[in-house]
Amino acid sequence: MIRAVFPGSFDPPTLGHINIISRGALLFDSLDVVIAANARKVPLLKPRQIKILLEEQIRNLKLSTVKVVVHNGLIVDYCRSMNASVLLRGVRSSSDFNYEFELSILNKQLGGGIETIFLPTEPGYLVLRSSTIKEILKYRGSISEMVPPAVEKALLKLV
Ligand code: ADP
To answer: Which pTM value belongs to this model?
Structure first.
């Protein structure tokens, strides 16, 4: 039984995140999507709102082995407490990979046996970034091709 964890800030959740979740659900016996605040990013949605939005997508896609949680603290501590052995991360580019690679080494040191598995993004999601979406939203550009409709609706209420 392989339990995996997909951590991120998901602020906001994008179609790129949903793609990684759907593919991860096929690879592991269970997948916990862990919402963890990123101290380096200015928050837009509250973790509680992100959880509701992600849960709706997961329900729609009938991903019965996927659950969403909010966690404050080290992700390796969450993995340990849940007996999860894999950290799942998505990679869009070589610069993503550089960052993710260093993070995976750090998490390996912190978390003992935890392995990070990278999934390359798929062509339609290559340029989807939460930070870009925040920027487009600020100037009232269209984000309908980048996020699920329910996420778009929640974001439009903020501008
Ligand atoms: P973080 O704040 O930790 O970077 P994010 O919410 O931005 O978290 O992303 C969580 C994970 O999802 C990261 O592994 C990131 O690389 C991945 N990800 C984000 N957008 C995409 C995308 N369009 N395609 C594939 N993976 C993605």
So the answer is: 0.95
Nearest-CA residue for atom 19 of ligand 1: 17
H-helix segments, the chain: 15-27, 47-60, 75-82, 94-111, 130-138, 149-156
- Can you tell me the distance from the alpha carbon of 7 to that of 32, in angstroms, rounded to the nearest whole number? 8
Domain spans, the chain: 3-156
The residue contributing the CA closest to ligand 1 atom 8 is 8
Name residues whose C-beta falls within 8 Å of residue 108's C-beta, 6 or more positions apart in sequence.
Answer: 114, 115, 116
Superfamily of domain 3-156: HUPs (3.40.50.620)
Confidence label for 42 from pLDDT (cuts 50, 70 and 90): confident
